[in-house]
Design a protein that fits this description.
Radius of gyration: 25 Å
Largest sheet: 5 strands, antiparallel
Number of strands: 9
CATH superfamily of the largest domain: Regulatory protein AraC
CATH class of the largest domain: Mainly Beta
Strand content: 15-25%
Strand order of the largest sheet: 1-8-3-6-9
Number of domains: 2
CATH architecture of the largest domain: Sandwich
């Protein structure tokens, strides 16, 4: 982390802060002649580019706008923004204010917001649903939802800051992490089937050989080993938290016979699947 980032971390803190809706919020596909030149802001604005390209100038600092760029605009910021005419912007935005409970934030307090204005979100798979949820809540906020808005915005800001900390890491790390998570999710949805490796890899747009290579390199397990591991984890859950028999669990997880299932289970956990409930009960005593 750079020295400026460390200084920013010392000054920025969510602890003791309360975030509340102010001003406007929404989702918009910007019009062909759109340009944004607001008066200096009276509050904070979370501004996110879903699609399109453009430029934004904040206090004379120029930023390119690309999908995944997430801006935190501050009170008093002077802003000028435009879009590429052949690739118009689609954006999410939400204005908010920050308070220290019901008290005014003192000048000597840690800054409620980081000094950086923009971070490119690479983990959009996790971030974008939160942003859509925030804007939906802000647009239709009902009485009693203030605390939920505060918590959701804090989660978004925490992830924003995490992305800032990781922005100097190679983009490949994000790509591989996301791919591995996607493959794991696909496997979990197919545990009751005989899994076709090529179909599984095709969901990530890759070949099974390459997926297996990436997983072995980054997790230590091949694709085949990963499937077995996730099946065994599911087997423990079914054996300890349902009334299913060992035979039923083996069939549910696509094992052709109970012998193969039991042998693999014992190799993983050191005891037979028929002992799983007993071991769980003993561990809880």
């Amino acid at each position: 982390m750079r020295e400026s980032d460390e200084s920013d971390d010392r000054r920025w803190s969510l602890e003791g802060r309360f975030f509340s809706l102010s001003g406007t919020s929404g989702k918009a596909r910007c019009e062909p002649n759109w340009s944004w030149q607001p008066a200096p802001l009276p509050d904070y604005d979370l501004w996110y580019a879903v699609k399109g390209k453009g430029e934004m100038r904040i206090n004379r600092v120029l930023y390119d706008i690309r999908p995944g760029d997430c801006f935190i605009l501050h009170p008093g910021d002077e802003i000028r923004a435009s879009q590429h005419p052949d690739d118009p912007l689609t954006v999410l935005y939400c204005h908010f204010r920050v308070s220290n409970g019901h008290a005014k934030i003192e000048e000597t307090s840690p800054s409620p917001m980081p000094e950086d204005r923009c971070v490119r979100i690479r983990d959009t798979y996790r971030m974008e649903p939160l942003l859509h949820q925030l804007v939906d809540m802000a647009t239709n906020q009902k009485s009693g939802e203030e605390a939920e808005f505060d918590l959701l915005l804090k989660l978004i800001l925490t992830r924003w800051h995490r992305e800032k900390d990781k922005r100097h890491e190679p983009a490949r790390h994000y790509y591989v992490d996301r791919l591995i998570q996607q493959v794991h999710n696909e496997i979990r949805f197919r545990l009751s089937e005989t899994i076709d490796y090529e179909v599984l890899a095709a969901s990530a747009g890759l070949t099974s050989r390459y997926v297996s290579f990436l997983m072995k390199r980054h997790t230590g397990l091949t694709l085949k080993e990963t499937i077995s591991k996730l099946r065994m984890e599911r087997a423990v859950h079914l054996l300890t938290e349902t009334a299913m028999t060992v035979t039923e669990v083996a069939e549910a997880l696509a094992y052709s016979d109970i012998y193969t299932f039991s042998k693999l289970f014992k190799r993983y956990y050191g005891y037979a699947p028929s002992e799983a409930r007993t071991n769980r009960s003993d561990a809880q005593k």
